[in-house]
Amino acid sequence: MEVQVEGGPAFAFAEVSLPPGGTVRLEGGAMATTRGDVQVTTSTRGGFMKGLRRAIGGESFFVNDFASSSGGSVGVAPALPGDITVVRLTGEEILVQSGGWLASDTTVEVDSKWGGAKGFFSGAGLVLLRCSGHGDLLVAAYGGIRVATLAPGETMTVDTGHVVAFDAGVRYSIRKAGSWKTTLLGGEGLVGEFSGPGRVWIQTRSTGDLISWLDARLPRHDSSSS
Predict the structure, then answer these.
(1) Are 115 and 65 in contact (CB under 8 A)?
(2) Residue 130 belongs to domain spanning
(3) How many CB atoms lie within 10 A of CB 189?
(4) CATH number at residue 147
(5) Terminus of the chain with fewer CB atoms < 10 Å: N or C?
């Protein structure tokens, strides 16, 4: 598929051109427009368990395949304002945070990866989407996207709310940003410790921070006054 991204990094929109006989797979609800001869098929792609694992990973239980017999295009937009980047896979694997996968070639396998008990109890890194195979992958973020390439043994610390994706060969662990005082009073929470070699994709804004900002400003309903 051929992809053109416009409107980034604040309000990115991807136009996917389909050649005759071409197909693109989209996260449920990601389609914004279609042009030309385009048909859609909805399925779990891999059966109930794969659909369930994607749902646990923050994606839709169902995926949509958009196909064209004579050529067409599909416009793709993420739910949150931000950027879209195209990652070309040539047999390697990358791990994508929940909600980051937007679309891909049908030759790209999208499945989930259990993050382990440490991720479960910390509340971060529970499930990552494992994307592998050959083809183009569209990854969406809240805010702009930056990519850091780590040399062998080089480490990088990233707030978990800013992690978008990373190469499967990059070692990572989840920990507190500092002491409990820093975590509770300093506004710093959990961070990911990444060690190269490999790439780490980072978003310039945090969805968790957005939710906290909105929550502090939403009106509260006091049930005791009713």
Answers:
(1) no
(2) 2-214
(3) 19
(4) 3.60.160.10
(5) C
